[in-house]
Hints:
The complex is a heterodimer of chains A (663) and B (67).
Chain A: E1 2-11, E2 14-20, E3 29-33, H1 40-52, H2 73-76, E4 81-90, E5 96-108, E6 111-114, E7 122-127, E8 132-137, H3 138-148, E9 158-160, H4 161-164, H5 167-170, H6 173-183, H7 187-206, H8 214-257, H9 262-304, H10 306-321, H11 331-340, H12 354-370, H13 373-392, H14 396-429, H15 434-531, E10 542-543, E11 549-550, H16 565-583, E12 589-592, H17 600-613, E13 619-623, H18 630-636, E14 640-651, E15 654-661
Parallel strand pairs in A: 3-13, 3-14, 9-12, 12-13
Antiparallel strand pairs in A: 1-2, 1-4, 4-5, 5-6, 5-7, 7-8, 10-11, 14-15
Chain B: H1 9-17, H2 22-38, H3 47-60
Helix pairs in contact in B: 2-3
Amino acid sequence: MDIDYIRMKNFRQYVDVKIEFARTSPRNFTxxxxxxxxxxxxLLNAITWCLFQDExxxxxxxxxxxxxxxxxxxxxxxxxxxxxxxxxxVQSDGKRVLITRNLRYREAGGKLVEVxxxxxxxxxxxxxxxxxxxxxxxxxxxxxxxxxxxPSIEEYFFFDGERMDDYFRENTGKDIRSAxxxxxxxxxxxxxxxxxxxxxxEFLKLTRGLSSQAxxxxxxxxxxxxxxxxxxxxxxxxxxxxxxxxLLERExxxxxxxSSLEHIQHLEEQRVMLDxxxxxxxxxxxxxxxxxxxxxxxxxxxxxxxxxxxxTKALIDGRREAGLIPPLYxxxxxxxxxxxxxxxxxxxxxxxxxxxxxxxxxVGAFLEESELSDMSTELxxxxxHIQEMIESVVGFPEEVVSIDKKLKNLQGLKDEKNxxxxxxxxxxxxxxxxxxxxxxxxxxxxxxxxxxxxxxxxLRQRDIERRGNIIRARNSELKRELxxxxxxxxxxxxxxxxxxxxxxxxxxxxxxxKKIKEEVEERASKQFLALIWxxxxxxxxxxxxxxxxxxxxxxxxxxxxxxxxGERQVCALSFMAAxxxxxxxxxxxxxxxxxxxxxxxxxxxxxxNLPNYLKGTQVALLVTEEEYTPEVRKALSEKVGKTYxxxxxxxxxxxxxxxxxxx
Amino acid sequence: MEKLSSVNxxxxxxxxxxxxxxxxxxxxxxxxxxxxxxxxxxxPRYGEDYDRILKQLAKVxxxxxxx
Lengths: 663, 67
């Protein structure tokens, strides 16, 4: 990106000046020549003031003086004076960016004073494919400017040659290191690592409560499932045995039915009928027991809370009878009255007299009574439900008693029939015929075996049902847990990914930093040795990991501290040229008094070599006549596209300057 | 001087030459592009962009993300 032009209106000595810069390579050098005090440094200041509202290179003699041109004082008595600095940049795609900063002044008490607002916010206009966009004002505009050129690295592009030799005295290695960070975009890694770390912490928070118990549940489910299979196998075995016992029982029963004795046949037929009858009774008993259980389930909560419910109802009824609930007035009604300053009767109670005061107290007392009005409404509604609950169990004891009575009767009937069965069995066993006696014993044996197996089957069926419920519940839990587990897994992987990203970012950042340092060192050292006139005196320029610079003398001692001002200037120039070329950050370089401290022969050498080290970079040199010698002029002749001369003169209290294009 | 519209070639090349897996390299490149886009923004909103890229690349690695 290049500077297209700068326009200064009433900025220090510049009343109305526009300077267009050479931009076409290889003649992209602009030379602005002026005597000491003509305004070269103020041109540099105009740029930094426009961009950052800061005159970064201001001379001590200008400190404290207004930046507006003081020759406008007389005119300021009649009209407002505008101070404007406008810079137009051209980006590599040809699109222009126009940055303007201005202040307004008036005369007061023989002085020029700023007309508020005095903070001089910038405005930015940007050219797009179609049209200009903007203006963007204030903070937003400043953010755009800072993104174009961070203020902290400005001094690596716009610098004062007169002060350049102080550069290594003022800038510590740490400052240089951070500048390298900015101009190489490495600070993007810093924010990336910080943001990645924050996202990692967010993911970490999400893992709370997600640590999985799925494995334990899986094991438990497997055990339960295996147990269910065993139960089912056992049930099958028991059912098989029961069937066998039933078959054998029936077989011996059939033998008895078909026995030669009519009496035995009759007894056996009776037993079959009784068995069937007892089964029916058993069925009825089971139905009644089920009804009883259902009744208990339905009414048990109310039965347990019966006494507290009665007591609560009695309390509410008592309050209602006493007229305590519901309150005479709703709280909201009283609050509205008090807010409007009205009595219940509608009269005004806002006055400070005795009547109003008394009424206010009375209405206030109503409010206290009414504060519980919302709760009172709830109590009254609840009382209806309490009444319904109490009524729902009114018939409960009778129902239970009735069921119990039926159960008792049925149980008695069952016992009676069982006794009859026993008698039948005994009678058959008393038979004199051995076969009949033996058949009955066998039948009885298998009948008992069948009964025992029936009990065992019932128990096993209950176990199976219970285990089935457990398995269903465990399956649901496991499903939920697996969902959590899946999310947990994903989060763990995201966390690992964040870690990998941060490690990679750190390593890449360090690697680039190291490479840049090595390249800057190599280039700066090469340039320093090319530009310096005592070529045999120094080994080169060395930069350590913290960007501290040293110049090793041929004898091995450190020579940075003993360099002359001119040598230090060459050192700084070499370093900055290297930094700019290595960073890849394409910014015009403006150097004020670049050769001021360099003697004649080295000056020519620098003029010849500098363009090679700043190849492709737009350069503006602000030089004195003494610096811009015929040799320097000749050395730069193929590079300079525009040459200006600053003419200045005193006018009244202030200075005036104009810039003349001479080539 | 201009607002940089792309991440420095040197950075991209160094990421590419690094020993890290491709998805981590892709992650860094994508996140750097976001940082570049937000550069100069006082309070950049980066969370959604970061999460989107992280989850997207995690899936590329074969991660099943459960929303």
